[in-house]
Amino acid sequence: MTRNSDAPLVVGLAGFGTVGGGLVRLLQENADIIKRRVGRDIRLKKVLVRTITKARAAQLPPGATLVTDPRSLTDDPEIDVLVELIGGIDHARDLIDRALDQGKHIVTANKALLAEEGLELFHKAARKKRILRYEASVAGAIPVVEALKASLTGNRIQSLMGILNGTSNYILSEMTSNGMEFDVALQQAQRLGYAEADPSLDIDGHDAAHKLILLIRLAYGVHYPYTALSVRGIRGLSAMDIRLAREFGYRIKLIAQVREALGGEKDQVRLEAGVFPALVYHKYLLARVGGVYNAVRVEANAAGALFFHGRGAGDLPTAGAVLGDLLAVARDERPNNTGFADKVLPKACIVPPEEWRSCYYVRVMVQDAPGVLRDLSGCMAAEGISMAQVIQKSGEGQGVPLVFMTHETSARAMRDALQRTMDSGLLKEPAVYLRVLGGE
Ligand code: NAP
Ligand code: HSE
User: Fold this and answer.
1) How far apart are CA 382 and CA 377, in angstroms?
2) pLDDT tens string 335-380
3) Nearest atom of ligand 1 to the alpha carbon of 56
4) Three-class DSSP category at 195
5) DSSP H helices in 363-402
6) Please, are residues 107 and 82 in contact by the beta-carbon 8 Å criterion?
7) Measured in angstroms, how far is the CA atom of residue 24 from the centroid of ligand 1?
8) Which among 211, 266, 283, 428 is annotated as catalytic?
9) Is the dihedral of CA 288, 248, 368, 421 positive or negative?
10) Which domains does the chain have, with CATH numbers?
11) Is residue 211 among the annotated active site residues?
12) What is the pTM of this model?
């Protein structure tokens, strides 16, 4: 649909919320630099919303109109590219499918859709020879999609670890530094436009997991089914664990990680991937990523370690990434949607989560009595787990917190050892246990 000429690129925008509003603003504020960079204007023609009468944070440019009928956007022959910023799965999928059928290019920030139904969409875009770009869908303003898809393609990616959800990081940072309650910090993140329409996507780890699926696809060229990913969020993390982790010199962060694992069959790369809250040593760069900031640490065989850091959410940071994608479309770039030449991406070979090895932070509530520590370490030793550090805090009533860090062990051994402690009646309540990141 795009023309090899100086004619403006005509855009149909779906969604005029946080990111859509940011894009409408940027298209006007950066019009001069856009023209200089791509040699043509970008003209916003229609904006799809649910409610025409709602107050908007940005003003539409002259000639652009609000519409509520999706077909008026997807079927408009003058529109070259659909920018999908409505979020969610079903409506967004219908919109993109129809727009591809009508020969439009696509720019989207919708990680949920691309993680869960991306394979079909990439396939369709390839068949139709259309561009499908999604820089804003992972880590907001950080250009990590393009880095993996283009700049780092001469490398083999060995591991990738990141803080990919701004809302969770904002909540954890506020709880750690300002002693803010979980719910208050979440409300603030919602007011600032960081949270998803359904914030459980943020705090239960699913948003970070969606982004991780996209990064795995970009880094390894494989399909890692969303349902196969191990996902745990920050809901229920207590101020006590955040405080105790600090005493050991750690910060608790929501981590998304994928790494190549040893021991696969010949020529087969096995991947260990998941989202989980973890203790990060306070001197590591990841521990210092605060507020709504995101970060991605990539370990590549030629480049070594790379660290990307920036705003992971919010109107302008995210809209800037969307606009960068639009400029790529305006330049008539050839589609390079997945970064791999495969027509169909092969399925990932997955390491089961119980085989993952890690050091652990464990907090148990126990009776302050002789022999308790001995019995506890007996349960650990029975599963081959060795304790590295132990502290016991004074407490009242129901028991005292006893905290220990372990040497490296498997998730299975940790689960079985904690089951032993429950079965033996040592614990007043189930243990809290979190992975401790090492060496990063
Ligand atoms: P938002 O503020 O909730 O805005 C959504 C917009 O889409 C609203 O204008 C809404 O219309 C419109 N909309 C929703 N469903 C629609 C439907 N069925 N038909 C027509 N219009 C519909 O969302 P957002 O925060 O901008 O997020 C948009 C997308 O960007 C999501 O995929 C999100 O995951 C992604 N993203 C967001 C951020 C961020 O910082 N917020 C960062 C990266 C990626 P009304 O205004 O009329 O209700
Ligand atoms: N809700 C997401 C976050 C928006 O908090 O990171 C950016 O994708």
Assistant:
1) 8
2) 999 999 988 899 999 999 999 999 999 999 998 888 999 999 999 9
3) 46
4) coil
5) 372-382
6) yes
7) 13
8) 211
9) positive
10) 9-137 (3.40.50.720), 144-311 (3.30.360.10), 354-437 (3.30.70.260)
11) yes
12) 0.95
